[in-house]
Amino acid sequence: MALTAIIAHRLYRHRPEDTVTTQARADLLPMNGKLEELAYALKTQFIRKGGKSYGRFSSDTGEFPFAAWLQDYRQGRLGFASFSQKNLQHFQQLLEAAPSLFDVFLFVIEEQIEAGQYLYLFVVEHESGLYLDADLQLTDSVYLDTANLNLAAKINCADWDAGNSATYLTLMRSRSDKDFADAFGALTGFSDKYDVKTETKEFLEVVENFTQTLDEPVARLTRTRVADYCLEQNKAGKPVAINELAHTLATETKGYEPETFERFVATQKPEIKAEFIPHAGQVRSYVRLSGRTDSLSMSFASDCLGRDIEYDPERDLLMIKSIPTALKKQLLAHLKQHRQDS
């Protein structure tokens, strides 16, 4: 992680009747190994967490000034510390209207890598704990809780500059406190939510139509590899690239040329972008069907349907053939015990 700037500020309100108090840092944190480890831990948690929203800045810079301030910083009219302090003050104002109690740190981090410039906002809580010191005496400790990161934002500055992206702003708001989470979203000026779920669903429908043109063994392998690739990209926080996926499929399935898949996607759904953000839930549902009630839990590969598993929608009946050996043993043992008891 090539950090170019990092700063942290504190916001807290410990009682409902209190106003929001801030503690602003005047200058950047000095770069060192521990700071880089902290930034890496925060970025890793951000990548791993699901439920992100993708969009852009609001055009209303009067109500949502974050983008204007970021532009001022990038064009040299604001220093990084001043840019972060303006956002601290704005966050404070937004939180005054929320009844939340909190004690958090706002980290603002700039990263410059080969792929471009990125800006991150992380809201980090601290936790208390106990540890044994050098004399084996029990001592109180306070630490930054990076493992439970719930609020964060990432700006892809290169995509923002290009002006043709609707997803350069990524927002993670998994905090259970809705008022606090909404205030954080307003801080960044997030708008135009990108419908990741729908786009992934439409892409997988094209994939399924494509597999219908293949022999069944190749079709099964294609479905699995598409799902694996999409989930790998999702876990890494990267988009699905149709061109890259096509070459991967052609290499690993050996059933067709890369151009075959690309051409099929372009013909069937020309509006699908060359790159898109995958929705993990939709991808998993494509290759695996599952459901549960209070007394029943079931999950199986989707390509079992019509082969080892048949569903009769008229009678709402699921028929399973080729029962797993372990389950079969349990069923027979249970049946035997039931007969003996009766």
TrEMBL record:
GO terms for cellular component: bacterial nucleoid. It comes from the Bacteria. Its main location: cytoplasm. This is Nucleoid-associated protein NdpA superfamily. Pfam families: NA37 (PF04245). It comes from Cellvibrio japonicus (strain Ueda107) (Pseudomonas fluorescens subsp. cellulosa). GO terms for molecular function: double-stranded DNA binding; single-stranded RNA binding. Keywords: Cytoplasm. InterPro entries: Nucleoid_associated_NdpA.
